[in-house]
């Protein structure tokens, strides 16, 4: 058996975790770290959040925590067997080992068990099916650690069975592939076959759940390979992607964007040919208003809003921004520059301070322009002059300009 002694593991033992461990030990309930946190620790990464698994039932945990005066928060997870306890300003999510009794491809009815192997068996991928004892002992029933070291993504047991328990696992396969695999295209043929045969199951999964996974895929490695693969195995159509997605443009843009930290929507828009594709995505996945607006903006402006020739390549973007009456135009322009692969211009645009127009109606009244209509016209003319000057003219220059006009 392997025992983990990594500093990331030692660092988990906060006063809160020590107290939790003591309570379980006193009652002889087993407590282990489960799932993603184990995978992270074995990869030398500090886990963001930690799930615990135990042989104690929810009722036993509640009784134990209540007797010890520990605060329990939100009972939402309880019917799935999860209790959340709060100790020393930290939350601990602890789930009873369970077996899926009935699954419908979306959610499962579970019954509790004390068999660690049975619980591991119902998890999705081998790299997510391991447990770690609090003494550092690794419990690994499906060679997850081997797969992690070899950067292999495999389903626990038979791929088709795991997928039919929850069709979202198809996308989780893609997401973890983009996170862990060493190179694109290293899939087991029978895994891809199982995905293809069960692709239709994704039609029944809620858009919100799909979008959470898809966004992570879009920001992971090998995104071009993985999205092309989604089309090959017929899942694209069930997750809101256009039937005839523009895969050439997608390949080009994913290359452009590599080190520019784009938003997921910026990457995805490369597949879209027009605004209907954005609308259809929104209907299926219920994306946020901001995401939808970004998609529409990119589809509309990616062709004609491009850099200027000569010494002022940024000017078209600056002019667009100054003329725009919409909120967060600047962040949309940043995303457009990423989409276009304009790394240098993006830097310059991020450093550019949006100037404010130096003349007000008040200034014009002082100069004797009195009617509101005349003031409006004069301000517009001065704005145009100011724009022509590259936003450099100051108040004096503009007002002397007004005398000429």
TrEMBL record:
Belongs to the tRNA nucleotidyltransferase/poly(A) polymerase family. Residues 31-154 form the Poly A polymerase head domain. One of its GO terms (molecular function) is metal ion binding. This is TRNT1 nucleotidyltransferase. Keywords: Magnesium, Metal-binding, Nucleotide-binding, Nucleotidyltransferase, RNA-binding, Transferase, tRNA processing. Its cofactor is Mg(2+). Residues 188-239 form the tRNA nucleotidyltransferase/poly(A) polymerase RNA and SrmB- binding domain. SUPFAM superfamilies: Nucleotidyltransferase, Poly A polymerase C-terminal region-like.
